Amino acid sequence: MLKVTAPSQDVNALVAELRDRVLEELDYRREAENQRRFAAYYAGHPTIKVPVIVDDLSTRRVVTSELSTGARFAELAEWSQEERDLAGETIYRFVFRSLYDAHAFNGDPHPGNYLFHGDGRVTFLDYGLVKHFTDVEIGPLIHMVRNLCVENDPEAFRRAMEDAGFLVRDAPLSTEVIVDHMAVFYELVRESAPLTITPDYASAVVRRFFDLRSPVAAYVAIPRSYVILQRINLGLFALLGELNATANWRKIAEEIWPFIRAPASTPMGEAEAAWRANRAATGSLA
Prior knowledge:
7% strand; two-stranded antiparallel sheet; mainly alpha; 7 strands
């Protein structure tokens, strides 16, 4: 079906990537190592907590980590909007700080993998489905967001998509049509202003992702390295949409984007900046 509906997609590579990631998810030694890496990276973070692995009680068949307790997502939904906004900011920072700094993405963003403690503090669970990225793989993602959202250069954005393999080179489409198709995925960070992620917006992202009627659909593909990354467009936005989370996502992104590294834009950002400064001082910042 994919070969018919998405002729530009390398279906064999996509299936191979999914197979590799699922097999990794069943390897508890790999999951424990993933969690160790995340726990080490976020040690001391003001709002992000990753449980530490208990090495003596972890084997090929069992992963044991320190006990973590907290409110589940359904409980968070009953908290104040301020608390939901703070939780949403932490989740957003965790996803993109992990991607751009730790070069890793926890590919299972769903409500069951979070515990909430108030004041934006969140414990992140389940590290079976983790994708690690090389500098070469991160590069095109940086070029795409920079060209579209910062430089406002649609042609450069198109070339970056082509270079990364997301778009067939010299496809018979105007750049305007391509940008219009892709804009929904970048809407959060194209303008610097408070924006609420609503369920309708999250649904729009999903619909655009699977919109086979778009003239762009025949010429776009998901390169193997980025298959799991697409879960950001689906799982993360859906989760934040359930929270109706509001923030100036562009300002937060500018703190995280490696080509800007802007000053803190929120109290949480100030606390995170202090954490990063301490890590840099001790030589442990990635």
